[in-house]
Fold each of these.
Amino acid sequence: MELDIKLLMEIIGLFNNLKKTYYLLKRKHDNPYRRMPKSKNINYLRSSWDRFWLG
């Protein structure tokens, strides 16, 4: 049972890292095409990201 929990935690950690890199790449890619001011844009992206992944 302990082994399964450790494996699960590792998988979750890996998944979180993938999400972070995907988010950073997506933001980098989308940035030039945005028409909103940068500060508003970043805050909006971060909040929507948090809502999507963290619930």
Note: Residues 2-30 form the longest helix (29 residues).
Amino acid sequence: MVQTIFTLCYDALNSVYYLGGTYNSNNLVLTGILGQTLPPSIGYDAFIARFQDNGGADYKSLEFFKDSLSKAVNSNVIAYPNPSNGNFNFVSVKNETIKTITVSDITGRTVYIKSFENETFETNTNLSFLPASTYFVNISTSIDNYNIKIVIIK
């Protein structure tokens, strides 16, 4: 059995990103026998869903993250869940290769840097070693640099 994983992102700016699917009007059109649609969820700024071949099932799980920090305005990258205990996923929703992630504290001091040599569109980053606070993340991609605010809670 071939297993394929796709990524879907919906945010308050009415942007929907689903790698391998289509977005039509106000619903995400899912491929599958029943032709299901996924309407936007009112009150949620962003969500990430992973759809897998689950032995004929149309999808296995759908996780919602209610927050207001996941996606910076006019940004092609998101961070979720946000706030978090320090374990973040950074995703390039338009398939821009992530080159570097730099995290700075509120004083501007760099507290974490990670560079990627291989083509990466999504990465899990463990920042749980940092104290609870607000941090600023600069994500350098193959096309641009993006800044996102993240919050670590303990």
Note: DSSP finds no helices and 14 strands in the chain.
